[in-house]
Write a structure and sequence with these properties.
With 173 residues, the chain is α+β, with helices and mostly antiparallel strands. The chain has six helices and nine strands. It has a seven-stranded antiparallel beta sheet, sandwiched between helices. A two-stranded antiparallel sheet has the order 1-2. The termini are far apart.
Length: 173
């Protein structure tokens, strides 16, 4: 009995002296785009977990593009570029489609709505607006949360990139 207690105390002492699990690190390079849509690595970095390998999967029909970043085979970040009929509001898309909880939402301005894990933006897309369409963007951190400032930076940079893209401007630049 005394020996068992001694082993238990020794084990607890060793456990309390150890530093626990080592701090998780990223062994992969942070991309500078979401499936081809530019997004500075500094805006994407807070949304990505530690891991060894990152990959992306792009999917979707015309008018809808989904990009999923996978870290070690698990979805870490999802982005969507989606076309809606003119007159659709940011509020309808953010709360109705992506289910942002109204109690945890911060409005960046009239173009962005975000929480600690999801953000929705309204792209300035003159070419498509003339054709009767609006473009909305969404970024979601699939595991955990970050501060709203990190989500705001990510959705702002992503939406600005979509607004400058050929699909919105009609130019070849």
């Amino acid at each position: 009995m005394v020996r068992t207690i001694g082993l238990l105390v020794t084990g607890l002492t060793l456990a309390s002296c150890s530093s626990g699990t080592p701090e998780a690190k990223r062994a992969y390079a942070i991309p500078s785009s979401l499936c081809g849509t530019a997004l500075p690595a500094s805006a994407l970095e807070p949304l990505l977990p530690a891991g060894k390998k990152i990959s992306s999967v792009k999917s979707g029909p015309a008018g809808f593009t989904r990009c999923r970043l996978l870290v070690d085979g698990r979805i870490a970040v999802t982005s969507i570029i989606e076309q809606w009929e003119s007159g659709t509001t940011l509020t309808n898309v953010a709360y109705g489609t992506y289910g942002l909880p109204s109690g945890k939402v911060k409005k960046g301005n009239s173009r962005y709505v975000m929480s600690d894990a999801t953000a929705v933006g309204h792209a300035s897309c003159g070419k498509l607006q003339q054709e009767g369409h609006e473009i909305f963007t969404m970024i979601r951190k699939e595991q955990g949360a970050v501060d709203a400032g990190a989500m705001e930076k990510a959705i702002t940079k992503f939406t600005d990139s979509v607004s400058a893209a050929k699909q919105c401007t009609g130019s070849n630049t």
